[in-house]
Design goal:
The chain is α+β, with helices and mostly antiparallel strands. The strands form three sheets. A four-stranded antiparallel beta sheet has the order 2-3-6-7. Helix 1 packs across helix 6.
C-alpha cells in the first residue's frame, strides 16, 4: 500500500511538472530595463517626490504619491533594492481596473539525472513563466500585494488552480524588513489605481483596506503550504530512490569482471 501511494505521488508530481510545461518555456523572455542615461531629470524629480511622501507619512496630515508605469520601471532600474525584479518584471500599462505586467518568472522543471559536467546526481532544467500578468494592487497586513486576475500571452492557457495558488502575489514580502520600505508600507491605508497610475496613500483615522479577507488569505496560504509540502516530500522520496538505485547500479557494475 505504501509503495502504491509513493508511486502514485511520484506519478502525480510528474503530471504536475508536465502540466506546468504546457504554459511555460525553456528560455526566459528578454524584458527591457529602463535606461538611466537620459532619465536623470526624471529620476531626480521622482526621488524628491518620494522623499516628500516619506516625510509626510511622519506627520498627521493626508499623505499621497502617484506612480505611473514609467515611474515604477525607473525605480526598478535605479534602486538596488529592486535589482531582483530587473529582467523578470516590467509594468507595461496601468488601466483603470488593473495593471498589465510583462513577466519572466523562473520555475523548477522536471527532475532528471545530471549529465557529464554537472554537479550532483539529480537536477532539473529551469522553465520560465513568460507572459502578461494582469493584477490589481492592494494591501495585506501592512504589505503591498498583487491580486492576480489573469496570466495571458503564454504558450497555453494557465490553469485557474495555478493562478489561485500564486495569488495574492506577495511581491513586496522581501521588503518588510527593509529599514525604509518596511515602515513606509506599514503606514499606508490604501493602494489603488487612478488615472493611469498606482496611488499610495495614508489618510489619518482610516484603517488599512486589505485587498484580501483573512479567510481568503488563510485558504490561499493553506493551499500553497499543502502543495509545497507534498511536492517537497515526494521530490525527496524520488531523489532518495534515484540515489539508492544509482548506487546499486554502480555497485553491480563494479562487481562485474
Amino acid at each position: 500500500m505504501i509503495v502504491f501511494l509513493v508511486g502514485f505521488s511520484i506519478y502525480a508530481l510528474f503530471k504536475q511538472f508536465d502540466a506546468i510545461r504546457q504554459f511555460t518555456e525553456e528560455k526566459p523572455r528578454q524584458i527591457e530595463t529602463t535606461a538611466l542615461i537620459g532619465n536623470e531629470p526624471a529620476l531626480g524629480k521622482l526621488r524628491s517626490e518620494m522623499l516628500a511622501f516619506q516625510t509626510a507619512l511622519d506627520g498627521n496630515e493626508l499623505a499621497s504619491i502617484k506612480l505611473s508605469a514609467a515611474d515604477i520601471n525607473l525605480l526598478i532600474a535605479a534602486d538596488e533594492r529592486f535589482r531582483d525584479l530587473r529582467g523578470t518584471f516590467r509594468v507595461e500599462k496601468i488601466a483603470s481596473d488593473a495593471m498589465h505586467l510583462t513577466i519572466s518568472f523562473p520555475l523548477n522543471g522536471k527532475p532528471r539525472f545530471t549529465r557529464d559536467g554537472e554537479s550532483g546526481i539529480i537536477t532539473s532544467d529551469m522553465r520560465y513563466l513568460n507572459g502578461t500578468l494582469i493584477a490589481r494592487p492592494g494591501l495585506l497586513k501592512k504589505e503591498i500585494v498583487l491580486k492576480i486576475e489573469q496570466i495571458t500571452d503564454t504558450p497555453n492557457k494557465v490553469p485557474e488552480e495555478f493562478i489561485g495558488q500564486m495569488s495574492p502575489y506577495r511581491i513586496s514580502e522581501r521588503y518588510l524588513t527593509d529599514s525604509v520600505i518596511g515602515p513606509v508600507m506599514s503606514k499606508l491605508t490604501r493602494v489603488e489605481l487612478s488615472e493611469g497610475a498606482v496611488v499610495f496613500s495614508r489618510k489619518p483615522g482610516e484603517l488599512p483596506a486589505d485587498a484580501f479577507s483573512d479567510v481568503q488569505v488563510e485558504s490561499a496560504s493553506q493551499r500553497l503550504f499543502i502543495v509545497l509540502g507534498i511536492v517537497a516530500t515526494v521530490f525527496l522520496i524520488f531523489v532518495a530512490g534515484m540515489i539508492f538505485w544509482q548506487q546499486r547500479r554502480r555497485a553491480s557494475a563494479a562487481k562485474e569482471p
